Amino acid sequence: MTHQIRPLDDQDEPALLRDQFRQLLRYRALLAGGVAVGLLGGGFLALSGDDTYTATGEVQVRSATADPFATGASADKGINIGSERQTAVSDTVGELAAGTLLKKGDDVTARKLLAGLQVTNPPNTLTLRFSYTGSTPEQARSRAEALANGYLAHRKARTEESIDNMANGYRAQLEPLEEKRDLLEERTGVDAADDVSSARANIIVSISELSRKISELKALDTTPGYLNKKPVAPTEPAGAGLPLLLGLGAVVGLALGLLLSWVRLVFDPAVRSPRELVRSLGAPLLGTLPRERAAAGTLLAIGRSGSRLAEEYRAVAFRLAYDPSFAERRRLLVTAPRGDNAAAAAAVVNLAAAFAEMGRDVLLVEADLRTPSLARDLGPAAHEVRPPRWAAEEGDRSWPAGGRSNVDVPGSGAFALVAGTTADNVPRALTSASVGRIVAEADRPGTVVIVLAPPVLSYADAVALVDRVEGVMIVCDPREVHRSDLERIREIIGASGGSVLGALLHPGRGRLRRAERRPGSGRRRTGGGPGGPVAEADAPEITGNPDETMGLRSVTLPGARR
């Protein structure tokens, strides 16, 4: 059966964001490292820097006016506050302030003085705010006041200079008129012509107008502004304190950690979420095993009361039973992507027990002929038994006709086990007629054949069995398998004529080992890996009662019923 994976749409975007955020939280070491670096940086800046103090004064700028109390008089007439702000930080103002400070015993250059000055303009005002940052409170106060007074002095001098220039220009125009007026007065008599009298009158009017303008210029109020707020010595250092710097450092460090986590997430080849696993494998997620499997004292979880692991295996078995593709063929090949195959071995044993609980005739075949372990994990074989009747007729003594075991599940039933044996020619053994006869037993009504194969990407053994079994289940740890591995598995199985029925996830080996070391987790296990062999004291008891019809030997688990 081909599983169609629904493409992501707009409704999946919130779920994707939640998945990505959870994936970022997986890299807790990077997040903690970023926060630690930010805290160290904030603490270093707070403790290593020298304390500085800032004093602030405010100057209200006004323009020169003849009568500030007259109706309609405006103090902002002709003032460009932006230009005034640039003037306040000019070298001329700095030199005036440096000269004033030198008289008070503070020898500082204009350039160094202006380096600690900041002039701002509050919106919609004619106010300039002088802020000076110094090493001591008194230094900050005196220098801020000197700079503000220097600006006012410079502006007043510039206004008075403009008035003097305009007055000198009017006087230059007035002198020729006065000389001409004097000449006309000498010619004026009783019989003077009318034109002479008229010219003299016009000149007198012009002289009067120029004299009035000069008088108005001299009467202007040249006050450049007022120091509304005198600078005072600050009582506390300026800048952010230790708590604020630590908070900012933590925020910046967290942002850095999130950035590093995102970069790590982008270049991480491992499967980052179940959604991505389903998309890469092209098959649904059948279940996720809890960590209980690591602390269990036996390979077989089915039959233990109150076991969450057993319930998860039962749920997976029911999902497979109702899968149309599996229900038609009743054959299942279980394998892992690569590496340790212990998790897949535990899965096949418990799935076989779960199907036995449903009343199915289950045949479990261990097709791992390189490192067979099921017989050792469930108990050492004690007796040779006769092969099945069809194998004796054909005279085939090679695997898997060598023998079977009957595994009793406590309170649930039993299933048949064909344990793997080491073979010199593994491909020939897997493609033999005996294997075909074993797999063909699933054609009988109510029979289920489950085959355990080595990791599909490590050996080609699973590929050799796909054409006979068809349905494949992948058992993997989502933190160890790569997306490229899942895509390759899907392509290999599809090209071999089979289909992936789904994936079964199990916890990582590191978490399982930590669970094994917890107090009260049971006896020390003799084997490693998830669902590995039981402790030697817990090994099942082997009885030698062969079944004459099937060629079975009985493997009785502790507490099992015959």
From TrEMBL:
Keywords in alphabetical order: Membrane, Transmembrane, Transmembrane helix
Transit peptide found in the keyword field: no
Residue span of region Disordered: 508-562
TM stretches of this protein: 27-47
Transmembrane among keywords: yes
Biased composition (Basic residues): 508-526
Taxonomic superkingdom: Bacteria
PANTHER family noted in UniProt: FERRIC ENTEROBACTIN TRANSPORT PROTEIN FEPE, TYROSINE-PROTEIN KINASE
Name of the protein in its database record: Lipopolysaccharide biosynthesis protein
Record organism: Streptomyces atroolivaceus
